[in-house]
Each structure stands twice: as C-alpha cells, then as structure tokens.
Amino acid sequence: MVKNKQLEFVNGGWVDNDEGCPNFDDIINNMMIGHEFIKKTFGVYPKIGWNVDTFGHSDANTRLLAQMGFDALFFSRLDGAEKNERAKKRSMNFLWRPSSSNFGNQYQVLTNVFIDDYCHPKGFLVGDNYATGDYIETDKTLTSY
After folding, report:
1. Which residues are catalytic?
2. Would you call 90 exposed, middle or buried from its count of C-beta atoms within 10 A (0-12, 13-18, 19+)?
3. Domain match, 84 and 142 both
4. E strand segments, the chain
5. Which domain holds residue 142?
6. Domain count, the chain
7. pLDDT tens-digit readout, 40-69
8. pLDDT grade for 127, boundaries at 50, 70 and 90
C-alpha cells in the first residue's frame, strides 16, 4: 500500500513532540528514530506534518520540519482570535516561513489550519462529540443503526 501510494505516513516521529516549549535535540532525535524506522521498514520518509492535538505550534519546530524536507504542515490548535480572523479572511492556508527574520525565504512550509479541531466527518464519534450523541452506529442489530 505504501509503494502504491495508498497509504502515507505523516510526521513520522517516534512520538508527537512538544511544540509549545521545544528542545531542538529532543525534536531531532524523536524524528530521527521514527524516520529511520519508517525508511528501514517501508522505504519512504514522511513529507507532511500533521499535528492535530498539540498545545501550540512553534516557529522553531516548523523550521526543523522545513530543514527535514517536509512540504506541508496541517494543524488545528491556534489562538482563537487569529483562527477567527483567518477564517473570516479565508486565509487558513498560508506559506509559513519560519525564522524569516534570520533566514528570509530559505525555509518555508505550506501550512493549513483546520477549521474544526479534529477535522473529522460529521457523524463520527470523536473527542468532545461523544457527549452530544453525534455518532455513527455500526451494530445492525440495534434500532439506531
């Protein structure tokens, strides 16, 4: 499936690293361990970042992703005022140029902010939606199917 491009790895770190208060060595080691495993096992390196539930995003982490050869980054958590403004201006997609005051356009990553936190299809039982009863029933024996 990986060779046929039916399945793609995103991020590829051993774990989802801290972005709010990152440590370069920890980010690099985390990604190196994960990427080495994926390369050895499947013969590919991830090129897309996907950070759905991190508590903040940093310029430093994005610069490291750019230096690692990532083409794009997708995330959901963003300051509420900025997210509302971006949604209003239809600018949820942008070219993030991390550390541009030092590196200019040398590093850049196409970035997308999800309008909904987890960006799941309506009707799926995910996260906070559990309490609303907004879910898909898969048991055919139940009347709610």
Report:
1. 53
2. exposed
3. no
4. 48-51, 72-75, 93-96, 109-113
5. 119-145
6. 2
7. 999 999 999 888 766 667 788 888 999 999
8. low
